[in-house]
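Protein fold
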Amino acid sequence: MTDLYCVMGHPVEHSRSPWIHARFAELTGQQLEYGRRLAPLDDFAGTVAAFRAEAAGTARGCNVTVPFKFEAAALSRHLTPRAALAQAVNVLSFREDGVHGDNSDGIGLVNDITQHAGVALKDRELLLLGAGGGAAGVLGPLLEAGPRRVVVANRTLGKAIALVQRHAALALQHHVSLEAQPLDAVPGNFDVLVNATASSLAGGAVPVPASVLKPEALAVDMMYGPAAAGFMAWAREHGAVPRDGLGMLVEQAAEAFEIWRGVRPPTAPVLAELRALVEAR
């Protein structure tokens, strides 16, 4: 019987995760099936339960995308330390002792920035836009990469403050200055900008002025494809180096694949193939 996995979200039809995991399986000799599940906004837990029930014991896990990462954490009986700190989960594993929750977003983002984009985060100044599930998942690993300063900016300042307070001890441990600011009053400019807001997915404008960018700053949108086009154009227009979320997507998927299968798949060739596919469309 083949092990089954899926990605759950709302929306989910655009997700490239099935293609990525199919390539990982081919390259590592693993036997599995990976699909998509659209979860109603008011019934994420029911969708997870239905997937497990329908799969008759072969459902092994799922990736979780917007807007369910906080709900996935609440659903998990066991949380890894990084998922517990984020209070957000994007990797569920179904095991005999219950549902395990982990978060591979942050290590995926850091690996993409440092390995594929070739940008060191050590001693840099970094601006993280958003305080939702995406931002919560990446803040811990970003702090562990050792930037000099990280500012979390969000439309609702209270959410940014809560996220910063939860990560204060980790920031102190890694000697990182960490603060929360409202989106419309971000002080200074930055070497790296990470957009973890829903602005790109909703087709909205970039929620901060271009003055936050240092010359040739790296500007990363966690979205990819058409959703990231507006942000990428904005970054390019204002002298930054734009980067979409494809590399993060592949790297977080590799981390999830290793959690599930115990095998680390190669990411560079998969990212190159995926980018060619996306650009061809």
Summary: The longest strand covers residues 213-221.
